[in-house]
Amino acid sequence: MGGGKAYSYYESLFPSPEKGEKPPHIGAVRLTRHPPKQVKRTIRILTEQRLTPDVPSPNPGYPTRHWHIEIWMVHEGTGELVPADCYDKVIYKLHHSFNEKAKQTFKQPPFRCEEDGWGEFDMKIHLSYAGGKNNEHTITHDLNFQQEKYEAEHNVVFKNPKPELIETLRSSGPVPGGEANGVTPNKDSAKKKTSARKDKNIDMDKLAEALQRLTEDDMLHVVQLVHEQKTQDTYVKNDVENGEFHVDLYTLPDALVKGLWDFTAAKVDMSVV
Questions:
Q1: What's the pLDDT tens digit per position in 37-88?
Q2: Is 172 within 8 Å of 74 (Cβ atoms)?
C-alpha cells in the first residue's frame, strides 16, 4: 500500500467565530503523502587566484596567475557551507584557449577546478544531479582577477525530486512538507511499516477515506491520539498560520494505526467506504 497514492483531508473542525463560538485553533486536518514539487537551494562558488611570477606568461603585460574554483551549498537554516553532495557531476567549460583542458569534469565535492592562466573570461558550469526533472543546473561564472578571493551565490531549484534526492537535500536544510516540529520522516522505516501492516488486515486506502467521514469531535480525538503516540519517525505538522494539522499515515507506529482503524471502524460503516 505504501506507493504513490496521495491522500488529502480537509474539513473544518471548529465553528466559525462569526457564530459566536470560540475561534479555531486547528481549522483543518490534512492526511497527506505528497512529495514536494520543488526544493530551492543556494550554491556558493568560491574563487581564489594569485600571481605566479615564476611561471612565464605567453602574453606580455598579462602575468600568469594560478586560480581555483570550488562549489559549495549554503545551508538554508544555518547559513553555513556544506558539501554540495546533491550533485554527482560538475563540468567546467573554460575558454577555448585551454585546448584539451577547456572541458573538465569532476565527480566529488567540492568539485575543485584548478588551472594557470593570464586572462579573465566567463565560463559555463554544468551541475548534474540524479533523481529530478531535467537533472542539470547551468551557471555562468565570471573568472576575474580583481580580488584574490571572491564568491558568488546562485539560487537553484530541484524540480520534482525523487525520494533519494530529497534525503540528500536534507543535509543542506529543511525540505518542504518533509520536516516539521523537529520530526523528519524516515522513508525506509515507513516502507517497512507499510509492508508489515498488510498482514494485519488494515487497508490504508480505506482508513484514509474513513477518517474523512468522522465527526468533528471524533477527529479531535484522532488528533489527540496522534500527538500522544507519535514516534521520532512520525511526520506531523501543526500549521498554526494556515489553521491546519498535517499527518502522514504511513509514518505512524503500528499500534497507533491499529488503534485508529479500530476507533474509525466503530464510528464509520467501513463496508461502504
A1: 788 999 999 999 999 988 888 888 899 999 999 999 999 889 999 999 999 9
A2: yes
**Which pLDDT does position 127 carry in this prediction?**
97
Distances (CA, A) of 231 to 8, 61, 174, 226, 249: 22, 67, 19, 9, 12
Least confidently predicted of 155-164, 172-181, 230-239 = 172-181
Distance from C-alpha of 140 to C-alpha of 129, rounded to nearest angstrom: 18
Distances (CA, A) of 12 to 23, 117, 119, 214, 224: 12, 66, 65, 11, 16
Burial class (CB in 10 A: 0-12, 13-18, 19+), 180: middle
From 209, 192, 182, select the one nearest 252 (Cα to Cα).
192
Evaluate if pTM is beyond 0.85: no
236 phi and psi angles, rounded to 5 deg:
-135, 150
The three cell numbers of residue 210 are 474513513
Cα dist from 24 to 9, 228, 245, 247, whole Å: 17, 21, 12, 19
Q: Which three cell numbers stand for residue 97?
A: 584557449
